[in-house]
Design goal:
Elements (H helix, E strand, L loop, with lengths): L9 E5 L3 H10 L5 E6 L12 E4 L5 H10 L2 E4 L6 H11 L7 H8 L1 H10 L7 E4 L2 H11 L2 E5 L9 E4 L5 H7 L4 E5 L3 E11 L4 E3 L3 E6 L2 E7 L5 H17 L4 E10 L4 E7 L9 H4 L4 H10 L12 E7 L6 E2 L5 H5 L4 E5 L4 E2 L4 E8 L5 H17 L5
Parallel strand pairs: 1-2, 1-4, 2-3
Antiparallel strand pairs: 5-8, 6-7, 6-8, 9-10, 9-11, 9-13, 11-12, 12-15, 13-14, 15-19, 16-18, 17-19
Amino acid sequence: MQHLTTPGPTVGVVGGGQLGRMLAEAASPLGVELIVLDPTPNCPASSVAENQIVADFDDPDAIMELGKKVDVLTFEIELASPDLLEKVHNEIGVPVHPDPDTLRMIQDKYVQKQRLADADIPVPTFTEVTSQGDLETALDELGSVMVKAKEGGYDGRGNVPVESLEEIESALSVVDQGAMAEEFLDFKRELSVIGIKGADDSRAFPVGENIHRDEILRETVVPARAPENVLEEARSVALDVLELMDGRGVFGIELFQTTDDAILVNEIAPRPHNSGHWTIEGAVSSQFEQHIRAVLGWPLASTAQRCPTAMLNLLGDVDKNVPAKLAGVETLLDSPGVSLHWYGKREARPLRKLGHITLTADGSDLDEVNQLLSRGKELRDKTTFIE
């Protein structure tokens, strides 16, 4: 292997966005160097990682170059090619975590749901959609449905609610590369568990509660404001999900708490997840440190929560693409228990994730969680992040 000059191991990451940046920040204190591959010059991770290979995620020569420079390969974006990752592993022997087969399964939402259902893990009722007739049947049997593109959708992209026959044609035009229809749930909360699969054991962080608007995550609060028995069930389901995953690493497991307090799995991300950013300040270890430990086969760290925590995303509040410039930081830094994470993106786009803030508090009761969330929203509303 053609290592850079480093006393510790080197991890290659396909993807150099905000997740790659935070992975590099977590790796450095462990003596681990990161090399990222990303098509955007000076991507967010580039200022923290040891090096960046500027290339498309499906560039076979670039992926092979990356594999030759590192001790282990991982990814922070589902656009990575499982076929190329598998080829690099087979040809030069570099380990890839999570396993390319896991990525391949998760990239297709229908295959993912079918795999969960086959393992008796609770999921919403769903069906494959290959024609207009399939969707008509789903509407007749399930009532209102959420039509989801099998591949490529995230942050609400590729998801279309359908309530009537008149909406079918427009919905299928959005997901014309294959789709599934899922029953439209009346749920109490959206929850998530950040799970870690290591070399010898699996662990999970405390359950988070996620608040979405326009299908974009806005806030996460931990502990989730749900009964203890619901939180225990969510954690148990998440650990069952980890058993299905091949390879090591962090997995973001999104869940629904239904009106009768059942837990159903929504989707899985085979990487650190936006809803786990709270762990940087709010837990003994962060999801990013855990991912580095896991892919290297090192012992996992504690997943214990330090204190009540709220995480709020900073989104591009713009109508069109404009240059991004960080401003108004003083308002945040003047408030106790507030941490700012700016991702270093050069351009603000509508609803693009530009950073996040985390608020922590002493104590452990749910009243403090509510207060943190309220205070965080006020701070976010009063602070300008784009000039």
